Amino acid sequence: MRILITNDDGINAPGLAVLQAIAHEIAGPNGEVWTVAPAFEQSGVAHMISYTHPTMIAKLGQRRFAAEGSPADCVLAGLYDVMEGAPPDLVLSGVNRGNNSAENIVYSGTVGGAMEAALQHLPAIALSQFMGPANMKLDNPFEAAAVHGARIIRDLLDKAIWDNADYRLFYNVNFPAVAANDVKGVKVAKQGYRHGAGFGLEPQISPSGRKFLWVKGGKQDLTSGPDTDGEANLQGYISVTPLRADMTAHDTLADLQSRLNREGHG
Asked: Using CA atoms, how far apart are residues 261 and 263, in angstroms rounded to an integer?
């Protein structure tokens, strides 16, 4: 198996090293793992692509490249430059430092990389490691992902739905903030929403007198509701959430059409 990996924390991030080990285990002794990751941290860039300026890419080692761009840029670089003519069988993005559950999915560059792979009609999985008091002081805070990651990916490859829709399915996996032995299991969960955890701004005045705005995130240990990804993570479970890039609110289509067809609207 040929696997392309990327992330949003940058080419030197410890989570990428964890993912590389996972990918080598999945690929097997005769497989290949190719890395194309951002030269610098790209957290929070979502599915951004560098449409208005070029992306510089540098070879750092065998099958290892750094690109001055977003995770989605890195996937494109992998497909159309680094691995041109021989696309990967699987794209993995992560392992992100911090959770990409609930509303974080919308902002996540990790998820954005997997989304671009899915839009390129390739199987893709995003992986993130929740951080908290129970794992931050471990020798390896990514222990849950490192121990359980390969098994989860194998299960998804063997048992999950992999369709060929225009907006094809891809998967978002979040590991809980616990030691590997304390992981309770796996839950398939919908995307949740943490009330009060949204982003805000904090203004600061620099020594030169100029005003700067810092983006601030909210608390991550808030409930995201029953049967959701964030709640599963807080309970010690690995969450698996099927995603599509299709952003249509399908549940409102018929009602909206009915409202617009009422008298006075044609």
From this structure: 7
Token match 């063997």: residue? Answer: 158
Q: Which residues of the chain have pLDDT under 50?
A: none
Q: What is the predicted pLDDT for the residue at 263?
A: 66
Q: Give the Cα separation of 104 and 107 in Å (integer).
A: 5
Decide if 265 is inside a domain. no
Cα dihedral 150, 152, 154, 157 sign: negative
Residue positions in the annotated binding site? Answer: 8-9, 43, 96
Residues 79-109: tens digit of each pLDDT: 999 999 999 999 999 999 999 999 999 999 9
pLDDT score recorded for residue 211: 98
Instruction: Assign residue 149 a region (left: φ > 0; alpha: ψ between -120 and 50; beta: otherwise).
Output: alpha
> β-strand 124-129 against 90-97: which pairing, if any?
parallel
In the annotated binding site for a divalent metal cation, the residues are 8-9, 43, 96
> What SS3 state is found at 117?
helix
| Structural domain span for residue 38 | 2-260
pLDDT at 262: 87
Please check whether residue 158 lies inside any domain of the structure. Answer: yes
CATH number of the domain residue 41 falls in? 3.40.1210.10
Name the DSSP class of 232: H
77 assigned to some structural domain: yes
Question: How many domains does the structure of the chain reveal?
Answer: 1
- Report the distance separating Cα 228 and Cα 197, nearest Å: 15
